[in-house]
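Progress report, Aim 2. The chain analyzed during this reporting quarter is listed below.
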Amino acid sequence: MEHLDDTVQNKPVFLTTREVADLLRVKERKVYDLAATEDIPHRRITGKLLFPADEIDAWLNASGPRKTVRPNVVAGSHDPLLDWAVKASNCGLATRLEGSQNGLELFLTGEAALAGLHMPDTNGWNVNGVAARNPANSVLISWAKRARGLLVSSELDVSGSDIAALRGKRLVLRQQGSGSFAFLQKLLAKAGIGIDAFATAPNTAHTESDAAASVALGEADVAVGIEAMANQFKLRFLPLAEECFDLLIDQRAYFTEPVQQLFSFARTSTFNERATSLGGYDLSEHGQVRWLSP
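Predicted structure tokens for the chain:
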């Protein structure tokens, strides 16, 4: 994006809400929302909202000029609700869902505008992992909280409520670098057992639905997964955690039409009804900023 002094002749010291909205190609309501959450430089003078032109210029160009424009791609972990919303909203974003760590790497190299993440931290999800890499000009926004646990075959008689109760059963693995694999490692470490305590399924599952399908088809007895997939494939669900599924978004890409269309759709009743139908989703923090690059 060009500097303001390249696009506005004889610009005033302050810009109005409408001028900022025109510059960002968003509705004025979005500018008010950004100001309310302190995500955009602004002043409130005699009750009127004004935006210092030089600070807006610096805000838009915080990371300096880019050699390339980020593609309209959502990378990272597979989330059924996100995958559906991208298609249902007709936002034009493409998906490249190959796991949280892979998504973070694609984001850092500029190969994706967004990355879906659910990486377990010592005291939560995603924030520590993202902050450690400190991507410039980026924001981590909550998409949803999800119920995560174990997907268990409906034909299996299980006593107990943790992974140790399933030792010896056939376990389908997720790919290394995925949030699900990291979560499995934490479960095993807590239980004091290793993957060798299970008979692993022959194929690795690369998405939430692949993992659930493997259990439903009888290829495995158990998988790490989310409640929404247990419901869809009629599997037993043993809840073990409430995780944060967040979107890491490039600040400039956030204001593009595809991303704005996706988030606009996520504010509709259709989106909320879908989340309720899938089950295991908590949207109470949807859209909240969880981390912002310094």
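The chain is about 35% helix and 25% strand. The CA atoms of residues 17 and 32 lie 8 Å apart. These observations will guide the mutagenesis work planned for the next reporting period.
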